[in-house]
């Protein structure tokens, strides 16, 4: 079953949702990056990918992968700066709501590995293999994929957060960024990036000092020895 691949598209980015896989996910508040800035960043990436496609080198897929990776780092750097748009997740009551909605589905749709809630965005590492273990014999019609899970988390948290903020309308951006975790090394990199984002953004001196950064105790004994290494995301 792990070999089954579902391809989806959210706006401009293809989403590859392998059944039972582990994912590194980033989503952000609506308006946290100006549209003109985001379009410029996307256009730069698309132009570079078009050149690679035209040249068609032997390592084309690898080059395109790293171009998308570069796009993500530039995108996340803009989010870390939090110079534009709302920072509602900096409000403890709002951040607590998001954390509750993430934890609600833990042990049901996924094994929650780690998360960090930043002022205007969120990083998650979710392991969906629990649905394979809990569904024997496995039936795909009983499987809840990443897209559905993100709709649940974002939908309910936005409704609850807007009530606290006394507003209505869009809270989260429609799109989100995800990476399928390919191997153990990639897994360590994703977890490190998630928990150490608050350190990189100078919000806390250590991830354990941030109330809305969390790592599953089952994984805290892992040798997380390269907190600044993230090139495999």
- Give the topology string: H per helix, E per strand: EEEHHHEEHHEHE
- The CATH class name of the largest domain reads Alpha Beta
Q: Please, how many helices?
A: 6
Distance between the termini: 24 Å
Number of strands: 7
Spans of at least 5 consecutive residues with low confidence: 1-15, 225-230
Roughly what is the average pLDDT, rounded to an integer?
Answer: 87
The biggest sheet, with number of strands, parallel, antiparallel or mixed sense and barrel status, is: 5 strands, antiparallel
What order do the strands of the largest sheet run in, or round the barrel if closed? 6-3-5-4-7
Lay out the secondary structure.
Elements: E1 5-10, E2 13-18, E3 22-28, H1 35-55, H2 60-81, H3 92-104, E4 111-117, E5 121-127, H4 130-134, H5 146-165, E6 177-180, H6 184-200, E7 213-215
Antiparallel strand pairs: 1-2, 3-5, 3-6, 4-5, 4-7
Helix pairs in contact: 1-2, 3-5
Architecture overview:
By secondary structure, this protein is of the alpha+beta class. It has two domains: 5-32 and 85-219, Transposase IS200-like (Alpha-Beta Plaits); 35-81. 42% of the residues lie in helices and 17% in strands. The chain is built from six helices and seven strands, in the order E-E-E-H-H-H-E-E-H-H-E-H-E. A hairpin with a 2-residue loop joins strand 1 and strand 2. Helix 1 (35-55) runs antiparallel to helix 2 and helix 3 (92-104) packs antiparallel against helix 5 (146-165). The chain is globular and about 50 Å long. It starts with a strand and ends in an 18-residue tail after the last strand.
């Amino acid at each position: 079953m792990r070999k089954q691949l579902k391809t989806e598209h959210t706006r401009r980015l293809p989403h590859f949702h392998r059944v039972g896989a582990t994912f590194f996910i980033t989503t952000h508040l609506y308006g946290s990056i100006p549209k003109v800035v985001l379009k410029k960043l996307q256009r730069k990436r698309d132009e570079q990918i078009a050149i690679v496609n035209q040249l068609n080198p032997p390592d084309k897929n690898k080059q395109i992968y790293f171009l998308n990776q570069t796009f993500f780092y530039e995108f996340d750097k803009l989010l870390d700066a939090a110079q534009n748009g709302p920072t509602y997740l900096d409000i403890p009551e709002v951040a607590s709501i998001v954390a509750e909605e993430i934890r609600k589905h833990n042990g049901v749709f996924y094994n929650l590995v780690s998360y960090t809630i930043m002022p205007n965005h969120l990083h998650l590492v979710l392991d969906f293999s629990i649905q394979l273990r809990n569904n024997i014999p496995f039936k795909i019609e009983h499987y809840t994929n990443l897209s559905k899970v993100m709709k649940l988390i974002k939908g309910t948290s936005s409704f609850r957060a807007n009530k606290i903020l006394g507003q209505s309308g869009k809270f989260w951006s429609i799109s989100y960024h995800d990476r399928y975790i390919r191997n153990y090394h990639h897994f360590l990199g994703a977890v490190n990036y998630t928990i150490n984002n608050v350190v990189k953004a100078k919000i806390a001196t250590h991830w354990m000092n941030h109330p809305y950064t969390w790592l599953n105790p089952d994984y805290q004994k892992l040798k997380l020895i390269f907190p600044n290494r993230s090139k495999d995301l």
